[in-house]
Design brief:
It is built from 27 helices and 22 strands. With 831 residues, it is of the alpha+beta class.
């Protein structure tokens, strides 16, 4: 077999590279740095926006949620979903999704697993196959159906012994299920899931059978052939309008939002990706400018070579082609190294991908069509980008002048200004734009960290209690209050616990619950729009969290409880009846008090829970407490009210918070787990974190972005400094004869130094002006990523400009000092 022969132009290019290995290595590594950063960011962009979701014909999948007339999103009400499924004409399949956590009880252990409660079309809509057993049928998804469960392949392998699990009985919470199928390996969903059960048999016990209940649910649908998203949205909103007429109390003004699934799960990440892609793009441009400057500097040493080629008959196009081949060969090597670096950096940057998509994509990324196209484009663009200017310059060299042995003073294409000088200005401009962007992001993150969350997170540990067995509250909803009190008693006995409390919807826990209400004595015709975050707490909660009492009194824990009738069976309607018209004590946040009772004393004011006619309790305001940031420091302050866990307990989603008497709150985790094993009957607690950790998790994205932007800015400054120093050293080196003549004619070294330094600083100043203009024009790209800072913040612009000037100054000073120290006798003797 004959060895593959490269075309002669490439053989010449690689021969030229081998002749100067050190020079080639510097260029390859410089390009690899810029290209590697771009490949790493592109791998994230590809996973987020370009790769298909792991389902057949995923472009036909859409996500449905309900929305208010003001545009606010709502979870999907299960009864509304049932009406949608019956009336819709746009989808070949429509599936419901609601998730919760339950205890998986095995013979040797108990652990919490993620449970997806779905309608019968779920597997069909997504195109999910079974590795064993059967899929879900409509008969499985009916009230009274035999309890069936479908488990993921991962759970089956890790906890159920692998193959042969179909037909086995497992316990989830207090209920037994028969495994009907094992989902094929590789199944992923936008939320973590271990087991899947039909929703209809669980609707009553999970309290989602009430039309007013919008509790963490959405729908997934597959568009019929020929039906687009807009037509489907029109169809669904027509159905929503009909439901609004049939059920005005719960559905008036409620519409349906239909969004492509890919777009829904990548929502909000586009501007962040654009910002980071712009940053790494600037780093690559600066790297290319650096390489172009090195090529230009080297071109002076190759003028005679090009002159000889021209003298023996090579035309200008042949010279340009040969020089571009060398540049493309270098860029190809740099691209190969950079791609390896970038793919290795994907795991590090994977944290940028929205968590829903992280659940859908593999942990490692490979080279696919999109990646190959991007890498090829990088190689071509960089090769031409840094190679064209020096190639064009050398192809226009004068053979007669180049073959002479003199070194006369040369002028550039802009008179005293050479092409390399213009590239220096471009480098400075790009670096300044990137430094300004990083400065804005850093200032924004600093502003965010200074936001008062409304509580004191230090020395507070939080954990979620497992849901108690249904038998505890099946015949008495107040049994849940007993469970909470027993948990608090156990926690109080732990050494190191100063105080502890119960709370539903803990801040920074991703749990939010809100309820409609209307103010007593006011027009209740449009109370659907009055909502506030609801918290069920024990009296110690405000002390544990450090939330101040501003007016009135705290809860006591001895509030009156409703009377539970004999024969009570737990249901949404049953609970509503026992609380109908019942007097509740409550506290409101300062924000809620000012919003609903501006200029009035809120103590003693009353508001009714639920919509008119439902009358789900009447709350009397007994106190006002400070505001808290419930769902992130950048989300604003919500309206909030607090009800007593003794008076108004809820059957799930309960957190326990404990303040440590000293030292690290995290040290309480192990003893609290052990102490709580008694009241929780051995069910493990979950989501154990300090409040400081919870807040840090909410800021992870911004923290990561800030660190990356700072890194890219530092890289850009370093490359710009190297480029400035290299170009000015090269320029001054070619002007040594001129400096020697000036010194011989009587010019002082100070004058020569001043002239050289002034000329260099003028280049930096010109680049700074261009950078300021560019940063100002690009402000709209970064504004959506900022908090509390304008994209045209003057302080950031001034500080960034000063930083760039100070960084560039050594690159201007040292070459000028070297030129000013030249010995004119030595220079003239060499002439």
């Amino acid at each position: 077999m004959q060895p593959v022969k490269l075309p002669s132009i490439l053989r010449d290019a690689f021969r030229q590279i081998r002749s100067a290995p050190g020079y080639a290595l510097v260029i390859v590594l410089t390009l690899a740095l810029g290209i590697g950063a771009n490949v790493a960011i592109f791998s994230v962009v590809s996973a987020t926006f370009l790769k298909g979701l792991p389902y057949p014909h995923a472009d036909r999948l859409v996500k449905l949620v309900e929305c208010k007339s003001q545009g606010d999103g709502l979870s999907v009400s299960y009864p509304n979903f049932l009406d949608w499924r019956r009336e819709q004409r746009s989808f070949s399949g429509l599936a419901f999704w609601h998730d919760e956590t339950r205890a998986l009880r095995l013979s040797d252990s108990t652990e919490q697993v993620s449970v997806g409660m779905v309608s019968s079309d779920f597997f069909g809509v997504l195109g999910v196959k079974m590795a064993e057993g059967r899929g879900m049928t409509a008969q499985d998804d009916q009230m009274g159906a035999a309890p069936a469960v479908w488990v993921t392949s991962d759970l089956c392998q890790k906890r159920l012994g692998g193959a042969g699990a179909v037909g086995r009985t497992i316990r989830l919470g207090e209920q037994s299920f028969t495994i009907a199928g094992v989902i094929a390996p590789g199944f992923r969903f936008i939320q973590k899931v271990d087991v899947i059960i039909p929703v209809a048999p669980q609707a009553v016990s999970s309290f989602i059978d009430n039309r007013d209940n919008h509790n963490n649910a959405f729908a997934i649908a597959r568009l019929k052939p020929g039906v687009d998203r807009a037509a489907a949205a029109s169809d669904m909103n027509l159905i929503a309008g009909q439901l609004g007429q049939l059920y005005p109390g719960s559905n008036k003004g409620i519409g349906v939002e239909v969004t492509p699934l890919r777009e829904a799960i990548a929502s909000g990440s586009g501007s962040r990706m654009a910002l980071l892609f712009s940053a790494v793009g600037m780093v690559l441009l600066i790297a290319c400018v650096n390489v172009a400057n090195m090529q230009i500097a080297r071109s002076f040493a190759r003028e005679k070579e090009m002159a000889i080629r021209a003298a023996v008959g090579a035309n200008r196009w042949q010279l340009v082609r040969q020089l571009l081949a060398e540049s493309l060969a270098l860029s190809g090597l740099g691209t190969i190294v950079g791609t390896c670096i970038g793919l290795g950096g994907y795991q590090f940057l994977r944290a940028l991908i929205p968590w829903q998509i992280q659940n859908l994509i593999p942990e490692q990324v490979g080279v696919d069509g999109w990646m190959l196209a991007f890498v090829a484009l990088m190689a071509l663009a960089t090769g031409i980008g840094f190679g064209f200017a020096p190639a064009w310059r050398l192809s226009h060299a004068d053979p007669n002048g180049a073959l002479k042995s003199n070194s006369s003073v040369k002028r550039g294409w802009l008179g005293r200004w050479r092409l390399g000088d213009a590239l220096v200005a471009i480098q400075v401009a790009l670096a300044l734009m990137l430094v300004i962007g990083a400065g804005l992001v850093i200032r924004s993150f600093d502003k965010l960290l200074r936001v008062d969350p409304g509580f004191r997170p230090a020395q507070v540990l939080s954990l979620r209690l497992p849901d108690p067995p249904a038998s505890l509250y099946q015949h008495d909803p107040l049994g849940m209050a007993t469970y909470m009190d027993q948990s608090l008693d156990a926690a109080r006995r732990v050494s190191g616990v100063e105080s502890c409390a119960i709370v539903s919807c803990l801040p920074f826990s991703h749990w939010i619950s809100s309820m409609m209400f209307y103010i007593e004595g006011r027009d209740a015709s449009d109370v659907r729009r009055a909502t506030a975050n609801t918290h069920i707490v024990s009296p110690e909660y405000f002390h544990v969290m450090g939330i101040p009492l501003l007016a009135g009194r705290n809860l006591t824990g001895r509030e009156a409880q409703p009377t539970v009738p004999a024969g009570f069976e737990f249901s949404m309607e049953g609970v509503t009846r026992i609380y109908q018209g019942f007097e509740l004590d409550g506290l409101v946040s300062q924000r809620m008090a000012e919003h609903f009772w501006p200029g009035e004393n809120p103590i003693g004011k009353r508001f009714h829970l639920g919509r008119p006619g439902l009358e789900f309790g009447v709350v009397t305001v007994v106190g006002v407490v400070g505001n808290t940031a419930q769902d992130g420091l950048d989300r604003g302050i919500p309206d909030e009210y607090y009800l007593s866990s003794h008076q108004f307990p809820q059957p799930g989603g309960i957190f326990l918070v404990a303040r440590a008497s000293g030292g690290d709150a995290g040290a309480l985790a192990k003893p609290l787990r052990e102490a709580l094993s008694v009241p929780t009957q051995g069910n493990p607690v979950q989501d154990v974190k300090t409040m400081t950790e919870r807040m840090s998790e909410f800021n992870e994205d911004r923290s990561f972005n800030t660190g990356l932007m700072a890194f890219f800015a530092a890289t850009a400054l370093s490359l710009a400094l190297v480029g400035i120093y290299g170009v000015l050293s090269s320029n001054i080196g070619r002007s040594i004869r001129e400096m020697g003549i000036r010194l011989a004619l009587g010019a002082t070294r100070t004058r020569v130094l001043g002239d050289l330094l002034l000329r260099s600083l003028l280049l930096v100043a010109a680049g700074s002006v261009l950078g300021l203009i560019g940063a100002w024009q690009c402000g709209r790209i970064i504004q959506s990523q900022l908090f509390g800072v304008s994209a045209t913040d003057p302080l950031t612009y001034w500080v960034s400009t000063l930083l760039v000037l100070l960084t560039a100054f050594p690159g201007c000073l040292f070459p000028a000092l070297r030129a000013a120290r030249v010995n004119p006798n030595v220079v003239l003797r060499e002439e």
